[in-house]
Amino acid sequence: MTDSVSEYLDQELQCIDLLECVHGLKELDRTVFRLLVTVDDPLTVDDVADGIGRDRSTAYRSISRLLDTGFVTQEQRNYESGGYYYVYRVREPDALAADMQRLLNDWYARTGMLIQEFEDTYESARDGRSPARHDE
To answer: What is the pLDDT of residue 93?
Structure first.
């Protein structure tokens, strides 16, 4: 696990690493994501569990994390005899990329504000003034 932005920048990142970098997903989540990317039809939780060689509850927790991040969509399917089940698929790459770009832009803007606050605080301290507060 990487501890700092500079350590991330020193690594040779791959596109699947974005799932960890941007959303903090676990290796299992990345495995489930890869599985869903490689299939043509949406999968049930049981299909995912079989595909990753884990139990149903583990597969469901991973799918839930992917749903929370917006990487996966859930669709209800109905049985002819009544009842329903869900299937899961990965969202379109352009939509995922746009979401990650927006998140990165938000992070960049907030980090820029923190850098400015850092500069103002230490410039004020160097000049013997009380630092300006940006949260007031």
So the answer is: 84
Query: Residue 74: which CATH number?
Result: 1.10.10.10
Secondary structure letter of residue 1 according to DSSP: -
What's the CA gap between 16 and 132, in Å, rounded?
Answer: 41
Can you give the pLDDT at residue 135?
Answer: 55
Report yes or no: 75 and 87 within 8 Å, Cβ to Cβ: yes
pTM of the model: 0.67
Q: Which residues contact 36 (CB under 8 A, 6 or more apart)?
A: 43, 48, 66, 72, 88, 89, 90
Q: Say yes or no: 63 and 51 in one domain.
A: yes
DSSP 44-94: -HHHHHHHHTS-HHHHHHHHHHHHHHTSEEEEEEE-TTS-EEEEEEEPPHH
Note the pLDDT of residue 64.
96
Q: Mind listing the pLDDT tens digit for each residue in 18-37?
A: 666 666 788 899 899 999 99
Amino acid at 64: S
Contact between 21 and 30 (Cβ < 8 Å): no
Q: Any bridge partners for residue 67, and if so which?
A: none
Number of domains present in the structure of the chain = 2
